[in-house]
Specification:
Order of helices and strands: HHHHHHHHHHH
Strand content: under 5%
Structural class: mainly alpha
Distance between the termini: 64 Å
Oligomer: single chain
Number of helices: 11
Number of strands: 0
Radius of gyration: 25 Å
Largest sheet: none
Helix content: 40-55%
Number of domains: 2
Length: 233
């Protein structure tokens, strides 16, 4: 079982885990195209006050372009794509992190501090920014902070940051349409109830009245609101 499958199993069981594989981003990536969600329309239920607040959050920017590019890289390291599923950066995870950071301000200082730690660590090791490193060197840094039990004391700050962003990435991914499909989660879905089966009714010497069969047990009308006026005595 690979790391992605391990994470899937742990998430289904209600736990969390780390996962590092590949990332996708090059110098020509237009970060604005990956993070601009201001024009998207949401059809979830909101009061006018909540809608106004969401709109204000969406129209504000917290992370710089460089920080967003780093978040995109880390998102795809944590949740890379497969042959049948897109990576985190392509299902709105960086946008989710941007929004959540503004929605829950407690994330702001730890996230910005963690991104700064990652930048400093990259320069310390290779005299380059994290975004300029090869995939191999990026993963080497991430390996040192991704597994809390094995983290060395000098990497504690980085490990705390990585745990936070990993939680945000997995939350964003597995609450997206693609992530839910990946888990195979079906949720509560309406079905058609066409009454007690005939064999059960016959076994107990019972049967539906003709009026009930004609007026109430109609699968094609299951979403209609029943008018019970004719049943009131």
């Amino acid at each position: 079982m690979d790391r992605r499958e391990s994470l899937k199993t742990l998430l289904i069981g209600g736990a969390g885990s780390g996962l590092l594989l590949s990332c996708r981003l090059d110098d020509n990536t237009d970060v604005s195209q990956l993070t601009d969600i201001k024009e998207k329309k949401f059809d979830y239920g909101r009061t006018p006050e909540e809608e106004a607040r969401d709109e204000a959050l969406l129209n504000d920017n917290f992370y710089t372009d460089e920080e967003m590019k780093t978040i995109i890289v880390l998102s795809d390291i944590i949740m890379p794509g497969t042959e049948s599923h897109e990576p985190a950066s392509e299902v709105g995870v960086p946008e989710f992190i941007e929004f959540i950071t503004k929605d829950i301000p407690e994330h702001k200082i730890p996230m910005r501090g963690g991104l700064r730690w990652l930048k400093n660590e990259s320069y310390k090791r290779h005299d380059k920014d994290f975004l300029e490193l090869s995939e191999e060197k990026r993963i080497a840094i991430v390996d040192d902070i991704a597994y809390p039990i094995d983290v060395k004391p000098e990497f504690t700050q980085g490990a705390v940051f990585f745990s936070r962003i990993r939680n945000l990435v997995t939350t964003g991914y597995f609450t997206s349409k693609e992530g839910i499909e990946y888990l195979g989660y079906k949720g509560n879905r309406p079905n058609v109830w066409d009454g007690v089966p005939d064999e059960v009714l016959k076994k107990h010497g019972m049967a539906y009245e003709e009026k009930i069969l004609k007026e109430s047990i109609k699968p094609e009308e299951r979403n209609d609101i029943e008018d019970w006026e004719g049943y009131i005595v």
